Amino acid sequence: MRKIDDITIREFQFDVLMLMENAGRATAIMARQMLQGITIGKRVACLAGGGNNGGDGMVAARHLANWGADVEAIVGTTKDRMKSVPLGQLHILEKMGIPTLLTDYTLGDYDLLIDGLIGYGLEGNPRDRVAMMIKDANVSGRPILALDVPSGMNATSGKAYDPCIKATTTLTLALPKTGFLAPSASRYFGDLYLADISIPRKVYQSFGQQNILFQKDSLLKI
Q1: What are phi and psi of 148, to 5 degrees?
Q2: CA–CA separation, 31 vs 29, rounded Å?
Q3: Could you tell me where the beta strands, DSSP code E, fall in the chain?
Q4: Distance (Å, rounded) from C-alpha 92 to C-alpha 86?
Q5: Segment 124-165, tens digit of pLDDT
Q6: pTM of the prediction?
Q7: Measured between alpha carbons, how far is residue 2 from residues 120, 121, 124, 155, 217 in Å?
Q8: Cα angle value 115/203/21 (rounded, 5°)
Q9: In contact, 85 and 16? CB cutoff 8 Å
C-alpha cells in the first residue's frame, strides 16, 4: 500500500488531499450504512490521531455533520503534534462548529465510534493518550468503525499490539492489508469492507491486479 500511495501521488500527480477526501467520504458512507441509513440526530464520535488516518476520519466527520449527524471529534494529540494535512482538516471542523475534544468525553453516549487513530504504519504498542482512547472505545459497548486498519494492529503481520481496537466493521482502503490473513486478526477487524479511493487502474495493473474491483459498488464486502 505504501508503494501504491507513492506511485499514485508521485507519478499520477494525485494530491494527498484528494485521497484523503475520497477515503473520508467512503468512511462516511460506511458509517451511514452502519447507522441503518439514518444520520439525522445520530451521535457520532470521530477518534482522530495526528496523522493522515486521523485526517481521513475528520473528513468523514465533516460529511456526516453535513448529513445531519451530531458529530464530535475526539483528538488523540495536541495541535502542535499533528501533521499539517490533518491539522487543516481539524481547522475546517472548527470553522464548521463541530466540537473537538481532548478530554471530558464519555464514549458510551454515542451511536457510533469512528476509529481514525492510527493507520497502516504502526510498529509497536500504542502509547499515551491514544492507548487510553483505544481502551475506552473497547469498553464503551458502542459499534466501532475502524478506518483502514483497527488502531493497534500491524497491517503487515496482523499482530494486535496492546491495546488494539476491536472493531465492529473495518473499512480498509484501496487494497486489503496482508495482516488480515492472520488467523487471529478477524477478532479485531470484525466485518471487512474494501473502499474505492480512486487509485488509478494502471496502478493496480502495475502490481498484477487485472480485475476491475469496484465496477459494481465503491464499497465491497470481503
Answers
A1: 75, -60
A2: 5
A3: 43-48, 70-75, 100-101, 112-116, 144-147, 169-173, 191-195, 219-221
A4: 10
A5: 999 999 999 999 999 999 999 999 999 999 999 999 999 999
A6: 0.96
A7: 9, 9, 18, 11, 24
A8: 35
A9: yes
Q: Which residue in this structure is represented by grid cell 447507522?
A: 35
d(CA 71, CA 61): 6
Give me 179's grid cell.
495482516
Look at the block and give the residue holding cell 477478532. Answer: 187
Amino acid at 165: I
Distance CA 133, CA 69 (A): 22
Neighbour tally for 210: CB within 10 Å: 7
Q: How far apart are CA 87 and CA 95, in angstroms?
A: 13
Cell of 208: 498484477
Q: Which three cell numbers stand for residue 112?
A: 457510533
Report the distance separating Cα 85 and Cα 11, nearest Å: 20
Question: Model confidence over 71-114: pLDDT tens digits?
Answer: 999 999 999 999 999 999 999 999 999 999 987 889 999 999 99
State the maximum Cα–Cα separation within the chain, in Å, rounded to a whole number: 49
Identify how many contiguous H helices and E strands the chain contains and give both numbers: 7, 8
Are 174 and 197 in contact by the 8 Å Cβ rule? The answer is yes
| Cis peptide, bond prior to residue 163, ω within 30 of zero | yes
What is the distance between the alpha carbons of residues 125 and 128, in angstroms, rounded to a whole number? 10
- Please state, in angstroms and as integers, the Cα–Cα distance from residue 67 to each residue in 40, 41, 99, 109, 149, following that order: 7, 10, 16, 20, 25
